[in-house]
# Entry
Amino acid sequence: MVGRERERRGRKAGATSVVGAVVGVGLAATGCSGQGAAAQDPRSGDPVRVLHRAADRLVAAGSSKARTAMEMASGGTRVTIRGEGVYDFRERLGRLKVKLPQDPAGTSGHRPITELLTPGALFMKNRGAGVPDDKWVRVATATLSDGNLVTGGATDPFAAAEVLRGTRTATYVGRTEVAGTAVRHYRGTADLARAARDASDGNRAALSAAAEGFATAEVPFDAYLDDAGRIRKVRHRFSFANRQGGGTVAVASTTLLYDFGAAVRVRLPEDEDIYAGRIAEAPDGEPGGGVDGKD
# Structure
């Protein structure tokens, strides 16, 4: 698929210490279902089954725009990384522009990182750490201890949906709105190992890595689905060991989906545009190193 440009147009349906542990954190920056409130809305169905099907509803929708936010807390430090872009759920291709948090002086020391999301690989440009500005870094997501649920500073939107395939317990909270769209709010816990078993081929290995690499394979979540069963918003809470400072890093990853049917163009880099050198160790709060540019 290298160098290939994909475009899909669908029907409009509306509408890191801390980061160092995330992008390494950049690459170094309850209850039973089908009871209680669920009975008040017959369209909600059995919460566990509804959530198991949520990723399939996105595939049926084709594509959407996406906004992401990743909040990390460790040792009294809290930072937020934000992203925005588009995603094609049928081709499993996406493009995000990820903005790193500002420093204490209120300025950002790094340009936004462009990320290309593909089955099994993450491409990053403007990621710093000694990588030339005109080069991309390619990382195999299955080699990451978090399966790229947090490494890129944004969770792949389809991977975020496929985590819900591992839902073990869930309750229907009630009706609310997300960005002006009526949605049903569910709260529950997913198991990453179970999600990996039921995931698509492109996410199976990555979710398996996350199940082993996180402090716990259990992922609490809040999911907001529209009346077509599509995810409009999902918030996961992950935790993993801080490799540099000790303790645990708590991560809350939020994905907002909207403008279903949006056009998606993703052009993957040519081989000569991919950085083949060693990435320098990044300081805290920036996408981190120790990862080869090519597999």
Confidence is low (pLDDT under 50) at residues 1-21, 24-40, 281-295. The two ends are 16 Å apart (CA to CA). The chain has six helices and 13 strands. Residues 201-213 form the longest helix (13 residues).
